[in-house]
Each structure stands twice: as structure tokens, then as C-alpha cells.
Amino acid sequence: MLSDLFALYSDNPVLYAGSVFVIGLVVGSFLNVVIYRLPIMLDRQWRAQASELLPSGLADTIVVGTNGPERFTLSVPRSACPRCKAPIKAWQNIPVISWLILRGQCASCKAPISPRYPAVELATGALSAVVAWHFGVSLSAACALLVTWALVALTGIDMDHQLLPDDITLPLMWGGLLAAVVFGAVPGQALPVSPRDAVIGAAAGYLSLWAVYHLFRLVTGKEGMGYGDFKLFAALGAWLGWKLLPLVILLSAASGAVLGILMIVMRGRDRAAPMPFGPYLAAAGWLAMLYGDTLVTGYLRLSGLQR
Fold first, then answer.
1. Is there a single domain that holds both residue 145 and residue 279?
2. Packing angle between helix 227-240 and helix 166-183, nearest 10 degrees?
3. Where is the domain boundary, 113, 135, 157?
4. pLDDT tens digits, residue range 53-82?
5. Same domain, yes or no, for 17 and 107?
6. What dihedral angle (degrees, nearest 10) is formed by the CA atoms of 294, 296, 302, 305?
């Protein structure tokens, strides 16, 4: 059965990419839940832990903000309209299609539904299809899909809360290290890398940004980035190996600088206002995962360092 499916998809790359696109849409719908609920869950956990350590008077002030259902997980309570609290039915939760059918409105109270939900679903589906087309039916594709989905979730959360949760960055890093140990560098496969490259990549990713952070704080007295950025860079190093880390940091820094300047010029953004770095790391890491060797080779040829 699996061999027949493997042969079918191997012989029909368009069918394979299309199937992965549909899977990506479904995963994107779940990632919307993760992006919205995980920060709330972490905030509740922090407040509960803090209240246990503080005197009762101060504990009462910490607990404020936990109003809502007693159980709040990725699956409980059932999704509902934030305004009228009407439960969302199964047919109203079909990725992209339901949003179009409902015309971007709640079926009960007609409150607007953010276009961000179908945007995340479409982005996840499209990125997943690109990964499938690029790597084909392979171990590399399976690894790259997992990395892609984690990066989408981290990007959404960091944009909303300037937070890169350990609940995602650490499993992503350990997953890269474990994949390297279990599978090693398979000939003809881009992912995973060798155990040596993965370990050095994770260590170099974390320590390089850690050093930059402390040097920046020593010079300016300010914090230039968060520890979540270190862990995300370490996770990328575990999956991609240490050789592509310079490309990732170059792409992320360049794109962050360009977009930051544009936001200051076009929107009058305060230069001192913090800006999440995670989305730029995620985008650069995804590009390096697919096209890193091509980009590095092209740069070396243009610079005359390679013929």
C-alpha cells in the first residue's frame, strides 16, 4: 500500500504537491489555533506559578487576567465566536472555503472574521507545496515540512506577542539533533545533516546570538533581542548544519533592516520601538533550507571566489 502510494506520487509530482498543499491547509488551520491559544496558555501557567510563590495580597494581582474557561488547551474549549460565543460548527471550520462561504463573517452575529485565518492556512499550504515540489517524495521533504510548520507558528506568535515559546523552539532543536543521530546524512538527501554538523550548528547558532546580545547590552545598556531568538537560531543550526548559519543571519539581518527602515519612513514607526526578529530568522531559515547551497554558490561565483 505504502509502496504503491510512494510510486504514484513519485511519478506524479503535481499530484504529490497538490496533495501536500491540501494537507498544509489543514495544518494551517491547526496552526491558527496554536498561534492564538499557546501564548494564552503560557500566560496562565506563568500566573498560576507566580501566585504560588507570592503572598496572598500580591498573588491576587497576578491572577488577574486569567478569567475565562477553567480548562484552556489547544483542544478545549471548543472554538467559538469571540463576540457572540456561538460554537463554530465543523462545516464552518473548513480551511479557506468556510471563510469564503461565510464572507468573512460569523454565521450567528455577522462579526467580521479576520482574513489572517485564511491567510495563515493558504501560506502554510503554499509553503508545504513548495517543499514537496522541491524535495520530492523523500525524507528531506518530511523533515522540511515539520520545520516549515514550526516556523509558521513561531512567526505568527512572535508577530503578535514578541515571543518565541520554548514549547516550539526547543522541540524543534531537539528534533533536528535526534533526526541527525537516527538518520545521519543520507546520500542524496538535504535533510537531516550529519550528527557532527547538527551539534555544531545548534551550539554555534545559540552561542553566536548569545554573544551578540551580551556585547550589545554591554555597549548600549539595552537588550537587542530575546533568548527565544537564540533558541530558534540553534534549532535552525540543528536542522541545517553550521555551514548555512552565516547565510541565515545575513538574510535575516538584511531583510529586518530593510523592512525596519521602510516602516519608519512609511508609517512613522518609533525607532526605539521593539521589533520581533523571529519572523526574519524564520523566513531566512526557510529559504536557506531550500535554496541555501544555490544562494551560496551564486554569491561565490558573482564575487569571483569560485569558478
1. yes
2. 20
3. 135
4. 766 655 555 555 555 557 888 888 888 888
5. yes
6. -130
